[in-house]
Amino acid sequence: MNTLYTWLGYRDVENMKQDQNAAVASLAIFNKTPFDRIVIFANTWEESWDKYETWLRKRLSTIQRPSDNIKVYRADVTSAIDYPTIIKHTEKWLSKLSEESEHLYINLTSGSPAMTAASILVGKGKSNTIFIQSSKDDNVLDVDIPVDFGKAYIQSAAKNIASKAVAKPLVHKAFNNIVAHSPAMKSTINKAKRLSISELPTLILGETGTGKEVLANAIHAASLRAGKPLKTVNCGALPETLVDSILFGHVKGAFTGAEKEHNGLFEQADGGTLFLDEVGELTPETQVKLLRALQQGEITKVGSEQTINVDVRIIAATHRDLIQLVENNEFREDLFYRLAVGIVQIPALRDRAEDIVLLVKELIDEINLAASKLPDYKSKNISESAIKFISTQAWPGNIRELWNTLNRAFLWTDKEKITEKDIQDGLIIRTNKQKVNEISLTLGQKVNISDIIDIQRKKYIEAALKATGNNKSKAADMLSLNSHQVLTKWIKDLDIEIV
Fold first, then answer.
1. pLDDT digit of tens for each residue in the chain (499 aa)?
2. Could you count the other beta carbons within 10 Å of the beta carbon of residue 386?
3. Which domains does the chain have, with CATH numbers?
4. Which of 94, 91, 76, 80 is nearest to 39 (CA)?
5. DSSP notation for 326-358
6. Distance from C-alpha of 190 to C-alpha of 173, rounded to nearest angstrom
7. Rounded CA gap, 66 and 38, in Å?
8. Which of 291, 308, 292, 310 has its CA nearest to residue 300?
9. CA-based nearest residue to 29, from 14, 12, 51
């Protein structure tokens, strides 16, 4: 049996009154394959249902097409845009009609956009459905929808999770939402709050992954410039040939490819804030150009002689030691003092242990939220032992490394509770190649090499014990010692207290 599933549209009813075809009649009359059954749904115009059935039967019988099995049914939907009830109705009837029919034709012309969308989404899941629609000149068109919606949905959800995993975690959006229970982080936030209400240039220092951009966003959001633009540029990614254009803009025809005028970041941020991320990566040539713009408060576009006044607050950030770069003549001293009026140091994650529990829970909430769109996904939690293990690790990549590790741990297990073993498996093991500072001695100068060695041994032993939860065997292995007995002797000799 060939069945037509359709909604009754306003035009179907109005054209019937003029004895003219509209979508449903056109499909019933002109489709190459006659329909043995026509199932029509409507939630309005009830006074016209019987008339429409009679009219359509007469039309089909005149051309000797099946006309006995035509029925308008009441659709239990609250409105033409009520997606939940429309989906429920569509699933019920398409499942029933698909089982009862050899071929189930679905009309995409009549009904609201919500009804059409539901018909496509549900109909694509049936093996015997054919999508058709009519045109104004009574042509019947087969509609090819070469999309696996289930697969597309899963891919979309998976892409969302992937983008979340590689992006920076979004746990901090303002000062009140920044996790700051540790004394070190509380001090950082207090300084940042004071700087936010000023117009002072601000320099944010901190290791990679500590959240420098997050803090810069919070400072801008709490400032008097919050309603104006915040523009961000990664100074390490500025190509030398385009740095002037990116920062200061260019006029049309300034160089090959300059087909129209372009406003640089300074002009785009006028009245607001310009965030110079990784400012320590600037080349000496770019430092000169930037200093001139900061000192004079004006810029000149490439290819123009006209100066433009700009009102921009500068927030800069770097993981590098700018003082050392200044001493090495790698960073201009005058630019450093122009940027470093207000300085905020973000502590490393290992120095804010009191924040780790809440921080981990917030990151997990983000991962669960991103994955919740996947079919059959069950929200995951983390064990106390896993959190304790996380608290013992050094996290040289800080929050960003923790975020990536948690994402890997969630990806590689189907269990609903993340364990210490899952976190261990998610870690990226680094080879510790710490830079040794150059050592110079003056003739006659004396040092106690034994004391220096003991100090370094003690620091490494304490770090290994912390990372292993005071497991001497594992700590000895980390330190490349032959046995834990050797480590035990060193602990005693160096008077190391095991907490």
1. 999 999 998 899 999 999 999 999 999 999 999 999 999 999 888 899 999 999 999 999 999 999 999 999 998 888 888 888 899 889 999 999 999 999 999 999 988 899 999 999 899 888 899 999 998 777 888 888 887 776 776 677 777 777 767 766 654 445 888 899 999 999 999 999 999 988 899 999 999 999 999 999 999 999 989 989 999 999 988 888 888 899 999 999 998 888 899 999 999 999 999 999 999 998 888 898 889 888 888 899 999 999 999 999 999 999 999 999 999 999 999 999 999 999 999 999 999 999 999 999 999 999 998 888 887 788 999 999 999 999 988 898 999 999 999 999 988 888 999 999 999 999 887 766 555 556 666 556 677 888 788 888 888 888 888 878 788 888 888 888 877 788 888 888 788 888 6
2. 21
3. 2-146 (3.40.50.10770), 183-346 (3.40.50.300), 352-426 (1.10.8.60), 434-499 (1.10.10)
4. 94
5. HHTTSS-HHHHHHHTTEEEEPPPGGG-GGGHHH
6. 16
7. 9
8. 308
9. 12
Query: Residue with structure tokens 């989906």?
Result: 87
